[in-house]
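During the second year of the project, the team shifted from modelling isolated chains to modelling whole assemblies. The rationale, set out in the original proposal, was that interfaces cannot be judged from single-chain predictions alone. As a representative example for this report, we include one of the complexes processed in the last quarter. Its constituent sequences, exactly as entered into the pipeline, are reproduced here:
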Amino acid sequence: MGLKKWIDLQLHPGRIPENPVLTAKLKTLDTLAMSSTDLVRNYPTPQMVRQMVAGQVPFPSDPGRRMLIEKLVAKAERKQGQADQPNPDAPAAQELSILLTREQIRALRTGTPQQRLPAFQELPADKQDDVIGALPAGVRQGLFQVAPPELRRKIEMANGPQQLVARDLMEGKLLRAIYSDRQLDEVLADFWFNHFNIYLDKGADHYLVTEYEREVIRPHVLGKFRDLLEATAKSPAMLFYLDNWQSVGPDAPQPRGQGNKARRGLNENYGRELLELHTLGVDGGYTQKDVTEVARCFTGWTINQPQRGGAFQFNPRLHDKGEKVVLGTIIPAGGGMEDGEKVLDIVARHPATAHFISTRLAQRFVADDPPAALVNRMAQTFLKTDGDLREVMKTMLDSKEFWSVGAYRSKMKSPLEMVASAVRAVNGDVDFAFALANQVAQLGQPLYRKQEPTGYSNSSQEWMNSAGLLARMNFALQLANGKVPGVKVETEESGTTLGSPEFQKR
Amino acid sequence: MTTRRIFLRNSALAMVGVGSAPLWLERALYATDAPSPRKKILVAIFQRGAADGLNVVVPHGEKAYYDLRPTISVPRPSAGSGKREDAAIDLDGFFGFHPSLAPLKPLFDQRHLAIVDAVGSPDPTRSHFDAQDYMESGTPGIKATHDGWMNRALPKPAGKVSPVRAVSLGPTLARSMAGPNPAIALQSIAGFQVRNPEAAKQFRDMYLGSKDPLMRAAGQETFEAVSMLESVQSQPYSPAAGAQYPRGRLGDSLRQIAQLIKSDVGMEMAFADVGGWDHHVNELGQKASEGQLAVLLRDYGQALSAFWQDMGDRMSDVVLVTMSEFGRTAHENGNRGTDHGHANCMFVMGGPVKGGKVYGRWPGLEKEQLYEGRDLALTTDFRDVLGELVSHHLGNPTLKSVFPGYNPKPLGLV
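Output from the structure prediction step:
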């Protein structure tokens, strides 16, 4: 295939059949396909489990899932009852002795995890779940390392179901980075998620990021910027992360009977980051007054039941209905949800946005300090095509600057790129990927866990330092020696090659 | 520009040569080379996310503070003797610590800790990113500055330069420390090595022989520092005087900074940061001593106080300074939080510090006294504080190149 044709295909990822290896590996990560509401119910926090028990929230409809959660409830209740026991391991041991014969228990406790696995698999299917819950943590973790995917899933559920949501996200990201044939699509999904960054560990966002990445970011990475922007503006994940869901106008009804402490009002967090980070850029010519006016326009853009995976909702009673002036444009009094949409129209088509987005893309794909001529051409395309991101990418990929000698290998790989490319280089067969995700974090880029709305830097400088380089070298040795859990390695490639200066460049 | 920086960096290294002397000899050199037996040390802590200075050092003598913050103010020290643990801890009759900072009160009383209030960057930006960048580059309003103030502030070396002269704790090198002088990023002392000695040699050759000047410089810095820290790694560390560092990033960082200082490996500057200060919603809990800010401040207070205890006499060579990119709105917002503001407070702690005092002119919180009608106004430039530490504590007389275009006015802190 010629290079031109390959690029054209990459710009139309829908025409590339997905790698069946990837599809198979993603299959066990079932949270990735779920809605936020289903995630909350199927992988509940302990608090949510209590609400299910109290009848405030329905159990999952799927009988198998319901059973798993009922087991968790039973276990929690047992723990409660045994809280005063001096030896915390004692109840588990007692429980095992009820479930199994002495020979069975001995088989589960002797030898290597590989030797224990068959002993476990010989147990009757209906007993396996209970045994997992009763096994000492060390034995359980040992089994985990060697278990087939379904059993691994059960072990993870016993450890705490809500952790699976984050784990699946990170594993999915790594598996796609390693195995997907739609490479440009993956890089862009990473770029745009980072551009519209969300921090997974901020409260309800734990359950909202999965749907955000799948429904808000991915479908739009080669679409119109205005659509992508609106999708983020209306996403529960963003509304929660930047606090807009709680921002209300001056006439909004106040919660009764709770005094001052429950009063609500304007919050300008989203308004500012929309202008600074999502669209115009910090030098895009807006003022503090614009920030406040934008925040007023978005009052009433909220979430219905955020803690239960809820959906976007416009609540007219919370909206500030006064007149606003945004970047010189008057937004007349008496408006509703359209006030926010008008803001999105203004900023999505603003020349500063065209320039800012083009700069960011060129920094990511070409050079830390991208040539001004290239950025200008991309920005022109952006404005001419009403923010068609595929066209902007095409302008960049067709440019002589992109193909210049200076651009080649001028960028250092990000930690994610380094880890993914190393696994590819050693023909790694990834059984589970969260150990790899931990490595990416060690290298300085914890996935989905950049707390600040700025996201990670697109600049190579960020990764060029002693701590990062040493972590890369150690990871390279560990991987090549087959010491990274979950990754089978077949290679002649030595760890020193993967940790070499040349391998850190892309 | 990048290339130029690298050449600068390389030539700086070339002047002192690549050390291949035995380790004991190197250490002996650092211990005895300087005219004064021990070098002065500066530790900088960055609170990322814009800490709410008004709820950290509370102006409890200011009525407007309570008017502007009906639900998230810290009660006056006198308020209700029954719930004192929930009120501000009085410092001077006007200012008081947030209750979570109780561990720092003795240090203030013993005059080892000074506060500078209404201080910050004069640039009006309320962008986290830009404001951090300006504070770390030391050049508010100028984006083209490539290096950080701490890198420029390293005194001109007298004799041999330690490869761990400037250390930035964390997985990436802080902006404050970037620049032509060698500076290393370090996640943990124990992890700062290539785990396989044979491979370590190969990597060293690869990086030192790399055609890429950036890689070569970074590799050189890294491997010199690795061999320097080998001896530190072999010694188990337990803090002195029963000092207990809190778990978490700040406590870990300060414990390791203390370890490096006490190991006499030639460290002169250390940087650490701690995030999570961006409290737009529910900044305080139902009580001032609860909630997000209280938790962070407890960690902050315990970490600083543990560092002081652990360092003991060595603190006579050390000054620690804290900063955050800007303050927060004087009034609370609609969600019991605060939005991005302007001036803030800084803490300066150390043996040479003239503490027990809140420095800086207090501008007041009445409407007409606020910056742009909403934020604490700025009366002291952060470069006045840092500049004094660089010149009077570190003894670096070239302030003009540390803070170009600015002439820092000392406050008399040290």
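Chain B touches chain A through 58 residues (CB under 8 Å). Confidence is low (pLDDT under 50) at residues 1-29, 31-36 of chain B.
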